[in-house]
Amino acid sequence: MNAEPEKKFGVVVVGVGRAGSVRIRDLRSPHASSAFLNLIGFVSRRELGNIEEVQQISLEDALSSQEVEVAYICSESSSHEDYIRQFLNAGKHVLVEYPMTLSWAAAQDLWKLAEQKGKVLHEEHVELLMEEFAFLKKEVVGKELLKGSLLFTGQFEVGSRVMWNWGGCPLTWIEEKGPGLKRNRHLSFHFKSGSLENMPNVGVNKNIFLKDQNIFVQKLLGQFSEKELAAEQKRILHCLWLAEEIQKYCSSKK
User: Fold this and answer.
1) Angle, in degrees to the nearest 10, between helices 18-28 and 208-220
2) Which residues are catalytic?
3) Burial of 14 by CB count in 10 Å (0-12 exposed, 13-18 middle, 19+ buried)?
4) Rounded CA gap, 10 and 55, in Å?
5) What positions does the domain Biliverdin reductase catalytic occupy (predicted)?
6) 78 labelled as ligand-binding?
7) Which of 26, 42, 234, 235 fits a disulfide with 13 by CB distance 3.0 to 4.6 angstroms?
8) Nearest to 22 by CA among 30, 13, 31
9) What residues contact residue 98 under an 8 Å CB cut-off, 6+ apart?
10) CA-CA distance, 25 to 37, in Å (whole number)?
11) CB count, 10 Å around CB of 99?
12) String of b and e for 40-57 (b: at least 16 CB within 10 Å)?
């Protein structure tokens, strides 16, 4: 992304909550990936007019405009599937905030639609771009896990937690929720070569949404191989499937 862009992709942001506001900020900032993107406007169910000189446009105009080539879906999770489907059918590339959908079957269907339309469908997962996750990946590479435990407190999405798992390893998964309980996670991993108890302070997470945008732009520019894209799709679908299985199991025990 170091070269001057030959073209800019017109972008509309759907939803202007926390994630949408950060996306608008990054799109308007002079970053390398932002140079390939041109913010056209935002879509919201509320009548907001303009936000920091960015104009509000209707969903119908966003879908029909030839100027809009990319949609950032930053609305509530339950609306993601419908928005993705509409924008893919309108011939737009899509970046969607996590989770892409609330079901494994719907995600499969949307990826097939993206492939049919020849468009990029990218699911954000900024938690995997945080310093904690990078540290953890580095710590476990090449080590044989004998047993481990993960304790999550507060509110986490099931699929998000699944992303922290390693296949084939015996893990104890504990969740605690209650009034006033802060969102946190604790871990204990025991390897043949030693142990890792809890997560050290590994630094401040900076510009994680921008890092995700960089990945998305690389996909737009065709800089990801088919093998890399297939592996990412397989991981996301597997985690959605596993999250559904966990929910089914928990529901059966109530």
Assistant:
1) 70
2) 97-98, 124, 127, 160-161
3) buried
4) 13
5) 170-201
6) yes
7) 42
8) 13
9) 123, 124, 125, 126, 127, 157, 159, 160
10) 13
11) 22
12) bbbbbeeeeeebeebebb
Each residue of 75-119: pLDDT tens digit? 999 999 999 999 999 999 999 999 999 999 999 999 999 999 999
Dihedral in degrees, nearest 10, Cα atoms 190, 194, 195, 199: -130
- Name the pTM for this structure: 0.86
Q: Which amino acid is at 145?
A: L
Return the residue matching tokens 């093998």.
227
For the stretch 44-79, pLDDT in tens is 999 988 888 899 999 999 999 999 999 999 999 999
